[in-house]
Amino acid sequence: DGGITQSPKYLFRKEGQNVTLSCEQNLNHDAMYWYRQDPGQGLRLIYYSQIVNDFQKGDIAEGYSVSREKKESFPLTVTSAQKNPTAFYLCASSIRGQGSYEQYFGPGTRLTVT
Amino acid sequence: GESVGLHLPTLSVQEGDNSIINCAYSNSASDYFIWYKQESGKGPQFIIDIRSNMDKRQGQRVTVLLNKTVKHLSLQIAATQPGDSAVYFCAETTLNDYKLSFGAGTTVTVRA
Questions:
Q1: Strands A31-37 and A87-94
Q2: Closest Cβ–Cβ partner in B32, B93, B103 for A42
Q3: How far is B45 from chain A, CA to nearest CA, in Å?
Q4: Which residues, 6 or more positions from B89, have their beta carbon under 8 angstroms from its beta carbon?
Q5: d(C-alpha B17, C-alpha A112), whole Å
Q6: Is B8 on the interface with A (CB under 8 A)?
Q7: pLDDT tens column, B58-73
Q8: pLDDT digits (tens, 9 = 90+) for A61-94
Q9: Exposure letters A56-86 (e unless 16+ CB within 10 A, then b)
Q10: Which of A4, A33, A108 faces B42 most closely, judged by CB atoms?
Q11: Are B46 and A102 inside 8 Å of each other by CB?
């Protein structure tokens, strides 16, 4: 099956620890994205990558870091500098250079930091 | 700044009735729009999209209408079913950009 996988589904960490969220896609998409969703709110863009070894900050990049060493993978690290890291994190991908810009989403990772 | 938003945060609809979910956008340069459905605890799922050179597009039980004059987008769901209960988001972008801007969402609850 083609799609996007995120792991784990639930993640718990102590304050002050860095944590890395996994995102893998086998859709052969060039572009990948990370969003944050807080209760009752829409999605806010953290980082996005249009191609391997390249990525750009989104609207709320402070306290987060990413890497794009492989086309299939776009891991997100939530650092201790992120003031309020507890949230639902969504990864997405899309075809680059095509007429459609539909983004396909993974199932999400719910991160709780205490 | 420019943003995409929905008129109503919640919508309660009787099973079998038609639902209409509205979205206003402020970026006149936007030329591509998507509706997503998000069920509790899951990632958003694509419903339907529309480009700015169209004013209507139909899918299975869903219709999206685009009014560029007033920068308004709507999603109509025919014969709403319990499985349609979810949060619905509109999103917009320009075809030269890869970033989608999302509205806050409308929570649709279907009454039996």
A1: antiparallel
A2: B103
A3: 7
A4: A42, A43, B6, B35, B36, B38, B44, B102, B103, B104, B105
A5: 39
A6: no
A7: 999 999 999 999 999 9
A8: 999 999 999 999 999 999 998 999 999 999 999 9
A9: eebeebeebbbebeebbebbbebeeebeebe
A10: A108
A11: yes
Other residues' Cβ atoms within 10 Å of the Cβ of residue B4: 24
- Interface check A45 vs B, CB under 8 A: yes
Q: How far is CA A105 from CA A53, A62, B103, in A?
A: 21, 22, 16
Cβ-proximal residues to B38 (8 Å cutoff; 6+ apart), any chain: B44, B45, B86, B87, B88, B89, B105
pLDDT given for residue A1 in this prediction: 55
How wide is the angle at C-alpha A16 spanned by C-alphas A11 and A19, nearest 5°? 35
B79: number of Cβ within 10 Å = 11
A51-55, A97-101, B40-44, B101-105: which has the minimum mean pLDDT?
Answer: A97-101
Interface test with B, best of A44, A101, A109, A111 (most B CBs within 10 A): A101
Amino acid occupying residue A6 = Q
